[in-house]
Sequence to fold (704 residues):
Amino acid sequence: MQSVRAKHLLLAVLCCCLIEIFIFNINYFTSSRLNSVNSSNVVIGKGLKAKSKYTYSISDPENAYIKISNIDSVVGNVHIPLKSVERFKSFRTESIPIPHAESANREDVALHLSIKVDDAAHTFDMSLPEILVHPKVLSSHWDILHLSGITHNVTLKINEPVGTEFSFSSLPNVNVRIPFHLSFLRLFAYLFISFLLVYRKEVTAIIFKEYCKKASIILWFASSFIAVLIIVGTVLIAKPWLYLRMSGWQADFEYQSMARSLARGHSWIDFPVSDALNNLSNPYDNRARALAHKGSGESFLFDYAFYNGRYYSYFGILPCIMFFLPYFLITGNDLSPWKVVLLLAIFMVLLAIRVVYLIFERWSENTPVVIQIICSYGLVLAIQPAFYLTFFATTYSVPIIMGLVLALITLCLWLKSSMALTIGKRWLYAIFGCLSLGLILGCRPQFCIIILFVPFIIHSLFLNIRNKFISSCLNLVAAAGLSLITMAPFFVWNYIRFGKITDFGATYQLTATDMNLQSDGLSKIPYALRQGFFSPPSSTDRFPFLKAVATSSEHAGDYQGFYNLEPTLGGFFFWCPIGLFAIALISSEIRERYKNIPFNLLGFTVVSFLASFAPLYIDVTAAAFTQRYLCDFGYLIGISGILAFIILRKIIHNKYIDYICVIFVVWSLIFSIWSLFMSGRYNSLIDSNPEFYIYVMKSFSIFN
Fold:
């Protein structure tokens, strides 16, 4: 049997090699038949200023072109031997709340080009879709053309801003022989898929195999290490340090400016308030504020809180106290938020895996360990659909990811409390869990909703009370009371700034809408439910074939009112279908068998799922709808889906439910990784890491 499998694998490898040579390298063979063209017939547009030989700077984008004329031959490709690209950006430093360079440059960028070309079938020139050329991706230096008959002229229009500098190793030309290229990325993809197909039975056996305790521990540690590598990769692949260096968006420096203010001993942001802002009757009216500052030429801090003539930050204070302030006091420099996101992301992944481990230990210890690990990956992906927080590692991600870390710590401690054998350990874990819950208030108050899990997770802390309902209520009251200990400092912080202990400053934001005058939130729910849960991403016929559902807008669908909508990448169930297990519990056939399910397991599942609607309602009513808000409730549905999976396994007793779980998580992993390439998302990979983006795009392109 093994020899037969080996033969099948060898045959698959041979087929992969043939595909690599004759399919993906077809242009190597076809380009050998093209007629060469005299490179002297090249005209440089007036919008390109020559800096040195083959080096140009854009002075007039409208006339920034390179024209290859008098070709009079069949054209099969355009060769663009790009050597370097450098882009410059200047800043209004007086509008940024921390010390900032007046200008910045970036060399790791791609050149955006559009090709205009004629052929025998078209009287007028055709404008072809824009292409990307990167100096380090050799395959991008050739653009394959599919034309009819003789071509006379080819024009390369450079779509870059004024000041962009680029150089060639030689002038662009047509019909240049394309080199033979072996892609290790393609070869790995071939071999991996071939291995899975040939050894699919062995892979299936690994999933359902029972392992000894030592082997199980090794599997958990190995899978945790791989999960950390994936998450760290999503941070590093986006190169957030380059984004932040080129950013002039004021809120990207909100935690740094807060740290500087705290170091000086006060709660407000040290930034001069413009006369235009002070003189407005309603400074929270976005359009009036923009017009006033356009006329005066003054600056104001967008997306900061403004109250009684001073700027404040509405972001949670705890990340600043934990990371940004100590770093500033020790080094005198500002801590970049991507470093905080990277550190917290590692803890978030490990804690999510730990939560799933404890859930199975409590309610379904006999589930195959590989299935448990797969479910843990489901929660890791559900916490931040489409890797939003780690891919866009800016200030906006910091309070959310730290709130998630604290929420997961709380759940871990409560689950440990529920399994403790002595009353002393129960109280110890419960107390520390509640203290962790209180700290969430200093990050993202929405996550405090997990207090609703107390009656279903924590065993009775009061042994002398036999009534389960009264005991659960007392547990809940005790948890709320204990959490107030660590919540108290944040209430005081609110009072110092805004005069109310429950005022976090969100209503004083200088943002796209007046947060004090929100319209009916209930009428937005149908749109929010579709966008938050069920909407798929938009598709396109260009790589990567997926794009954001919506761009920034003040309206959603045909909603007749203000509905601030930022770019979204699709609903939760597209990215994390493991949550669908919770919906499956509604089935009448399943409901009939609930009597054999522990009440606390069923209650935890239902409450976790229903609780997800509260953050969605709060977010869409109080602010806008954007992809990062899925992180406010994604973990709730992820946990609910895993708990529902456990219930279904207890009821159905069929391996097909395990197969469905594997399919759901594999789907989530594949599409979450692919989402990194999506266009329309913030800091999209085409801008943040064009070299990698173009390399992957070209690796799986045959005729282009």
